[in-house]
Amino acid sequence: MVAAVPVIAIDGPTASGKGTVAGLVAERLGWHYLDSGAIYRLLALAALKRGLDLTDETGLAVLGRELDAGFVDGRIWLDGEDVSLDVRRETTGNAASKIAALPAVRVALLARQQAFCVAPGLVADGRDMGSVVFPASFLKIFLTATAESRAERRYKQLIEKGLAANIDDLLRDLQERDARDASRAIAPLRPCEDAIVLDTTKLSIDDAVHFVLNLAVQRGVVPVA
Ligand code: DC
Questions:
Q1: Cα of 6 to ligand 1 centre, how many Å?
Q2: Which atom of ligand 1 is nearest to the CA of 94?
Q3: pLDDT of res. 25
Q4: Does domain 7-218 have CATH number 3.40.50.300?
Q5: Rg (CA), the chain
Q6: Which run of H or of E encompasses 20?
């Protein structure tokens, strides 16, 4: 019998720090990393570029299956173009949140996400990693933080990338996005029953990374460092 590839699922709202924490945990373990939000963002960007209506569920699902996307050395590619900066824009994130509410879109992107599950292991971040995409994950974490601290973090990230940002607009957008992500009928944003909730409002990135790594060691799937 072939042993299953171990997965750590890190879900949570936007700007909760899950991407940074998941990326660092993957680096420490020498495992693969899936930023599932980037896949929704890529599809949204492709749709915007093609002038596709963001409510065209069938058209978006077809595009989602055909998408020419690449993740190479931390850069994100779409149709042979480096779109690493464009996928991070708030307009892209908001469009991603809208199309992510469409059931056929979520189904279309499922296999693409599951393809990241390759030995020796995977750390996956998103909204439904523990509940839908990798329900057999041996460790499920739900990272959260207050809306105000997440808006502040997002503001710093965007400014560091040289992108325009306004803290009040960010807070409003983030609250709207949380409400949309949490209230949708399919795979809503909420901790699954077997997830461990970690509030990072007062935690450093390092603390959060250690918390996850310690749990992974306790569960006996990764060796003590
Ligand atoms: O994590 P993020 O902000 O990059 O994600 C962008 C949007 O994509 C988010 O508002 C909701 C959607 N998303 C999702 O529905 N399911 C995922 N697993 C990841 C992201």
A1: 22
A2: 10
A3: 97
A4: yes
A5: 17
A6: helix 18-29
Phi, psi of 182 (to 5 degrees): -85, -25
| Largest distance between two CA atoms of the chain | 54
For 58-112, write each residue's pLDDT tens digit: 999 999 999 999 998 889 999 999 999 999 988 999 999 999 999 999 999 999 9
- The ligand 1 atom nearest the CA atom of 180: 10
pLDDT band for position 139 (cuts 50, 70, 90): very high
Q: By the 8 A CB rule, do 34 and 124 touch?
A: yes
Please name the residue ranges forming H helices in 30-102.
36-50, 57-66, 90-99
Q: Quick one: pLDDT at residue 144?
A: 92
Ligand 1: which residues within 6 Å by Cβ?
14, 36-37, 40-41, 93, 96-97, 100, 126-128, 177, 181
